[in-house]
Design brief:
Phosphate-starvation-inducible PsiE family protein; flat; about 0% strand; mainly alpha; cell membrane; 5 helices
Length: about 140
């Protein structure tokens, strides 16, 4: 019995170290992706000097919103790194930023009303889930006790 507990503790420790190492590599990769996104955004600023100002702004807007979505992924990874768990609100925030990036791109395209209605329903349902996750989070339950 005692020997099994020691083996379980060693396996748990190995798992935690492995996860932290891989997560550290992931965080470095995310930071590099953010840097690359910023570089691409600055490179796309040259499009403003061209004839298609509308297309240039659309490209820059999508670039910036994509970088912000990657920042939300970084926030989720850092939360797992520090707290040892992933917060549902961070995941929902990441999905909301990504979906809103697509919504911003819709402004520059012709879309069927059914697709727009589906995106609106998705955003509203994600917002509702986020409100519920904040309202009934384990942390607020612990604070009430």
């Amino acid at each position: 019995m005692w020997k099994e507990n020691v083996i379980d503790l060693k396996l748990t420790k190995f798992f935690e170290i492995s996860v932290r190492t891989l997560l550290s590599l992931l965080i470095v990769a995310i930071l590099l992706a953010i840097l690359a996104g910023i570089i691409v955004t600055f490179q796309d600023l040259r499009l403003v000097m061209g004839d298609d100002l509308h297309g240039a702004f659309r490209t820059i807007l999508v670039d910036v919103l994509t970088v912000l979505a990657i920042v939300e992924v970084l926030r989720t990874a850092l939360a797992y790194f520090t707290e040892g768990r992933v917060k549902v609100t961070y995941i929902i925030d990441t999905v909301l930023v990504t979906v809103l990036t697509e919504v911003m791109a819709f402004w520059y395209r012709e879309m069927d009303w059914q697709k727009v209605a589906m995106v609106i329903a998705l955003v509203l349902s994600l917002a509702t889930v986020r409100i519920i996750a904040v309202r009934f989070s384990p942390r607020s339950s612990r604070e009430e006790l």
